[in-house]
Amino acid sequence: MSQRGWPARLSAGDVTVRPLSYGDAAAWRDARRRNVAWLRPWDATVPPGAAARPASFRALVRRLHRQARADATYPFAIEVDGRFAGQVTVNNIVRGSAQFASVGYWLDQQYAGRGVMPRAVALVIDHCFATAGLHRIEVAIRPENSNSLRVVEKLGLREVGYAPKFLHIDGEWRDHRIYAVTAEECPEGMLRRLESQQSQE
Question: What predicted TM-score, i.e. pTM, was given to this entire model?
């Protein structure tokens, strides 16, 4: 069953976000292998006693697609000029009176510093508000993760809280700063707001 928020393909300049697919296996594995030191401090890990992660990339995609069909998550691959560059995933979608979700992301280091991730996240937030009908998006970031903090700064997301021991990251429960935006805060769209800010710099 197709949901109104999924599947979707979104583009801004040389950046495209589209559903993560089985065909991304080789590029995904290559990016993760080359970027292991770059990503390890920020990667989610499985705490002792919790269910193990999928054993293969194919199993991961299968699980994410099942969750997407259930309108629980939207797993996007990021492309730059048609080449796989990372992921941005809408997680923990809550409907009913909340209409809320969280967004997480990672990027191949070779694309860092080019404004790729702010555009990718802006595209996804706009999609969540305009098409998927969500009302609020949160991003949780470790205080030490200066690159991710720069993304939410560029997008103008408000810091709304501090969550001690919030997520299991790099083998330990880690504190996170919480950022959020509602649909009312960017009526003309997050991408347009980003582009307007960049034109003034």
Answer: 0.96
